[in-house]
Amino acid sequence: MNGLYLAFIKRALPLKQLAVLLVLTAFAVTAGIKTYQSLSKDVQIIDNGKPITVRTMSDNVAETLEMLDISIRPDDYISMAPDTELDSEALNVISIKRAVPVNILVDGQLKEVWSYKDTVEEVVADNGITLNPLDRYEGVDAKDKIKEGMNIRIVRVSEEIIAEQTEIPFTVVEKPNNVMNEGETKVVVNGENGIREKYYKLTYEDNRPVSREFVNEKIIKEPVSKVVEYGTVLNFRNHRGDLVRYKDVIKMKATAYTASYEDTGKHPDHPAFGITYTGLKAREGVIAVDPKVIPLGTKVYVEVPGPAPDYGFAIAADIGSAIKGKLIDLYFDTKEEVRKWGRRDVVVYILNEQNDTRWKENNNPCK
Questions:
Q1: 106 Cβ contact partners less than 8 Å away, ≥ 6 residues apart
Q2: Do residues 247 and 233 lie in contact, with contact meaning Cβ atoms separated by under 8 Å?
Q3: Candidates 2.30.30.40, 2.40.128.20, 2.20.230.10, 3.10.310.10; correct CATH number of 165-230?
Q4: Model pTM greater than 0.70?
Q5: Sign, CA torsion 293/295/297/300
Q6: With bands split at pLDDT 50, 70 and 90, how would you rate the model's confidence at 335?
Q7: Alpha carbon separation from 128 to 2, 83, 131, 155, 233 (Å, rounded)
Q8: What are the start-end ranges of the E strands in 238-323?
């Protein structure tokens, strides 16, 4: 009450009545204060970390916020629902976290979202985005604090193992064949390429390949070597086209003889006339040798170098007192043939097959 009002009361009322009025007024004020105190609520609002403490007669959270002109956006967080009634006997704490705009680039799409979450990974999860074990963030980390206008890029990472097959070339194994002619070959086993499988790990980022890493390899199929036999038997064809297979060759001198007394010292009536040292009947195709150089019984081919005809196939079946070293004596049927032969250089081939019987067909040597 101001001074004018008190002065008026003093003039208008007797002293006793004035005292009663003052008591009633004090009682009313005290009662009003007690009523206010019993109906008001203590409220603390923490708005984005900034505390505001008030006492209010509002019944619920919404009325309190409206009284303080605090608006809540749809994406903001509030710890108490707007229709929550306030507690008059305890401190009502209302926490508000303001959402900020954030850009999320994922799966080729740009998502503009508002979020009140604290960290990058919380914002991503809150927007229903699941990261696979290999996925990663680019430009930010999962635990980074959210900032207004932050750009969050999620890179999708995937891996796959692929297999690539390559051929293993087969090798060629050559083996000597002591029956085949030199210059001849024969495939015994056909070669087959093997198969090698190599494994690579491919890494993709947002479906684009970024790396290729060798992992391991294994042999799916072993190669099969090609086996080729090659002939080792020396050979040539004579002027008649006959194949001569030989295992050794000796350059020699050759004379000629007949079964006559002048050549053998035996008359036609001698029991051993026309019989060689080995017991064979003397005939064309039989030659006398030094057994130390060419063993008796050896089948040979006698070649005459140059254009002259060869003596041909023969058997070492005779010896002679003058036949020593690299000198042989060739049998002819007539003295005329012996005279024509004279003494010549020859090449003697030791036949590879000692069961060769073509010497028996040598009835026309040097013709």
A1: 129, 153, 154, 156
A2: yes
A3: 2.20.230.10
A4: no
A5: negative
A6: very high
A7: 67, 28, 10, 16, 85
A8: 243-257, 286-288, 299-303, 312-318
